[in-house]
Amino acid sequence: MMQPNNNYSAWSTPQYTHTQFSALSPTERLRYFCQLAHLAPSTHNTQPWKFHIDPDNMVIEVSLDQNSVLPASDVAGRQSIISIGAAIEHIRIGAEYEGYAVTIHSASADKTSVRPVPKDPQHVSRVPIATIALSPQMNAPSHAESGRAGAIFSRKIMRAEYKRDQPIPNHVLEEIQSCVDTDTITFHTLTDPLRRQAIAEFQAQADGFVINNKKFSRELGDWLLENDTSSPVGMPGAGFGLDDTQAMRMHRALSGDIPLEPEDGLRFSLAGKEYIEKTPFIGVITTKGDTVDDWIHAGRAFERIALTFESHGISHAMHAGIVEVRLINRMFAATLGTLQSLQVLFRAGYVKKEEDLRRPHSPRLPLEAVLY
Ligand SMILES: Cc1cc2nc3c(=O)[nH]c(=O)nc-3n(C[C@H](O)[C@H](O)[C@H](O)COP(=O)(O)O)c2cc1C
Predict the structure, then answer these.
(1) Distance (Å, rounded) from C-alpha 372 to C-alpha 370?
(2) Is the distance from the beta carbon of residue 315 to the nearest atom of ligand 1 less than 6 Å?
(3) Is CATH 2.40.10 correct for 6-157?
(4) According to the CATH classification, is domain 170-358 in 3.40.109.10?
């Protein structure tokens, strides 16, 4: 697969040993933690975060770049904030691993301030989301936390078929249950075939809506890119298992340059459905409220779970369509039997085809572009 530029160099970030880390200056340390945050997943790989470091006080300020919020698929800004929650969790895990106590203060952003805005690259539109203060502590990280810290460097979203008959081992499920903060979110695990089938149907409907809705599909086309793209943001088709020709065709068809063949649309909506039908594990995160803080908590919890899976060699993928297509969201919540707000739906399992594990990572902006 062609990777003609430096857009993938973020994945060569080393995991510093404690001795290597202790030789870094305060500025280098904080930049390193921002780099870890930058390896987090984000909706459509928009990387909607911006970081400001204050080495005198060992503080990182995390903001949303409102220009990055996608108007069709992220109308409320929820997906962008969940992404930022995941980035915050990377900082928390990375900093605790290197011997810091971490205090996270929410900036209590208002929901109206995180919605998409008309795109204007000239106008920087930063919304403070949280400040993260680091102070030295002596506690060594647990084995599970060290596993999560290591997983930051290898993690990737795996949109592939998982082995239906290979369940997640109980000790991993226990580790997951013990790492979620049940004061801030509710974590539902679904492993029974009946509910999995129902969710698969919802997924097909959500994907069908996306593909048949011009605004949604054009936006997806702008972000689902050719494999040799020079863009540091967005999703090269290889991450969906598409070869160079398929990726180019899908990008052009969704963008409206060439007609979208009916079978392309059908294949798109059936793929998600099939993946869910075959997955041994579905996780859903809901919250009591539906505020920006709830979205941050959901993003943090999701990423903690995702890194736990990754540390045990278990893949995961996200399915935001069910959350974002409103009618389906409500029907799904009823199936789940909850009155809480649906935030994140993902699946996890062991990849069926070994070669899928060798798919390239997704690109990242240079670190300088996300610092202010
Ligand atoms: C909030 C959020 C929602 C996402 N929704 C989807 C989704 O619906 N379908 C999908 O295939 N990937 C989804 N992703 C995965 C992103 O596309 C992926 O994180 C991004 O392309 C970067 O790739 P990486 O995570 O492998 O580094 C989502 C990620 C986040 C954080």
Answers:
(1) 7
(2) no
(3) no
(4) yes
